[in-house]
TrEMBL record:
The keyword Cell membrane is assigned to this record: yes
Transmembrane segments: 38-60, 72-94, 100-118, 130-153, 159-179, 200-224, 230-253, 265-285, 291-315, 327-349, 355-376
Domain of life (superkingdom): Bacteria
InterPro entries: MFS, MFS_dom, MFS_Efflux_Transporters, MFS_trans_sf
Any GO molecular function: transmembrane transporter activity
Subcellular location: Cell membrane
Alphabetically ordered keywords of this record: Cell membrane, Membrane, Transmembrane, Transmembrane helix, Transport
Protein name according to UniProt: MFS transporter
Gene Ontology annotations for the cellular component aspect, listed alphabetically: plasma membrane
Domain Major facilitator superfamily (MFS) profile: start-end pairs: 5-380
The keyword Membrane is assigned to this record: yes
Length: 397
């Protein structure tokens, strides 16, 4: 496995993840600075997710015939431009535009980077390779988001985006120098892509992603105000909580790759979703208990991000011959789920209380668990293709 190249791809995932998630920690500051409500500021998450879905699905398809390294680097340059627009944002509309640019380029990058990692790895190490890229994404929760939130406590929040732009430029130069070229392929016709969705295991496998990320985002998009109301956390306390959540998200992403290679995606997805739902429901009863909140955040972060590499591996194993197309659908639907999560979270805040987000999110993750069980059951009724290593690993485990 070309580990150094894969780690560079993970570094790119880190900066895209930081740009995506840092808003959640500084939502109140943005709302106050740009004179909009918290619910309106939350739509920065909504529009980001929609645009990310477009980049992950349509831009991947439109650029599929081009050499992948060139497209990857183009996505990074566009991402740098998006961060600079955010840095110069003086009103809400311009910041929203920057989020659209960041999302479309980030969505294109993450799909190609994940596919790149799987192609660079040996067949029996592809689960780990995917996990490394997703670990980079989750490290943004460990370092990027809490550090950005802490920066915002002492300086203008816009400098977060300038910092991301600088790190992305360094990443771009390293990727240009060290990753190998990878040929593109002829774009798959839309009819053929939609034909893939006639598979019940694949459809329900994709719905696992929709529901788990919907439940996750319902509360994470408003994690700042949620923790402030739940346990009276200051912005420094929120930054610390996000750091703890991110550390265990990192652990979960790394463990997810190990678990897939050792026990298979089915068991890994089932157990991680069960723990994820239990953690969110438990979070609702931890009001005023800081220590209890931190313990639940640890379980939540680890469980949620263990699911990610396992789910991606599971989906690729269902259609290994169309892995980039499947990953495109998965990333697009993931961000549609995030869009719905941010929107539903805003509805909850406007009509009841932010404190209801915990148990409601847990219920949605339980729907993801039920969907996963149905997908696994449907797959067992279909013959396994032992001509393909990925499918064989998934079937055997």
């Amino acid at each position: 496995m070309n580990r150094f190249a894969i780690f560079l791809l993970a570094l790119g995932a880190f900066v895209t993840g930081t740009a995506e998630f840092v808003v959640s920690g500084i939502l109140e500051l943005i709302a106050e600075d740009l004179d909009v409500s918290i619910a309106a500021a939350g739509q920065l998450v909504t529009f980001f997710s929609l645009s990310y879905a477009f980049g992950a699905l349509f831009l991947v398809m439109l650029t599929s015939k081009f050499e992948r390294k060139r497209v990857l680097l183009f996505a990074m340059l566009t991402f740098i431009a998006g961060n600079l627009i955010a840095f110069f944002s003086s009103y809400f509309g311009l910041l929203m535009f920057s989020r659209i640019v960041l999302a479309m380029s980030g969505g294109l990058y993450i799909v190609i980077a994940t596919h790149y990692a799987a192609r660079l790895a040996q067949p029996d190490k592809r689960g780990n390779a995917i996990a490394i890229v997703m670990t980079g994404f989750s490290v943004s929760l460990v370092l990027g988001v809490p550090f950005g939130t802490l920066m915002a406590a002492y300086m203008d929040w816009r400098y977060i985006y300038l910092t991301i732009a600088v790190i992305t430029l360094v990443t771009f130069l390293l990727l240009y120098r060290f990753i190998p070229k990878l040929d593109g392929t002829e774009p798959t016709p839309w009819r053929q892509q939609l034909h893939l969705l006639r598979s019940k295991p694949l459809i329900t496998g994709l719905l696992i992603t929709v529901f788990w990320i919907l439940g996750y985002t319902m509360i994470f998009a408003y994690i700042g105000p949620f923790l402030a109301r739940l346990a009276g956390f200051s912005i420094e306390g929120i930054s610390t909580a996000l750091f703890v959540l991110g550390v265990f998200a990192f652990i979960g992403a790394r463990f997810g790759g190990y678990a897939v290679d050792k026990w298979g995606p089915v068991r890994t997805i089932f157990i991680s979703l069960l723990l994820h739902a239990a953690a969110l429901i438990a979070l609702s009863v931890m009001q005023g208990t800081s220590l209890g909140v931190f313990v639940i955040l640890m379980i939540w972060g680890a469980a949620a991000w263990t699911t990610t590499p396992a789910s991606q591996f599971y989906l690729i194993s269902l259609r290994p011959q169309a892995s980039e197309t499947v990953l495109s659908f998965n990333t697009a639907l993931m961000n549609i789920g995030m869009t719905a999560g941010a929107a539903l979270g805003g509805v909850v805040i406007d009509n009841v209380s932010v404190l209801h987000l915990g148990w409601l999110s847990g219920m949605v993750v339980l729907i993801a668990l039920a969907t996963a069980i149905y997908s696994f059951t449907s797959r067992e009724k279909q013959p396994c293709n032992y001509d393909d290593t990925l499918t064989q690993i998934a079937c055997d485990k």
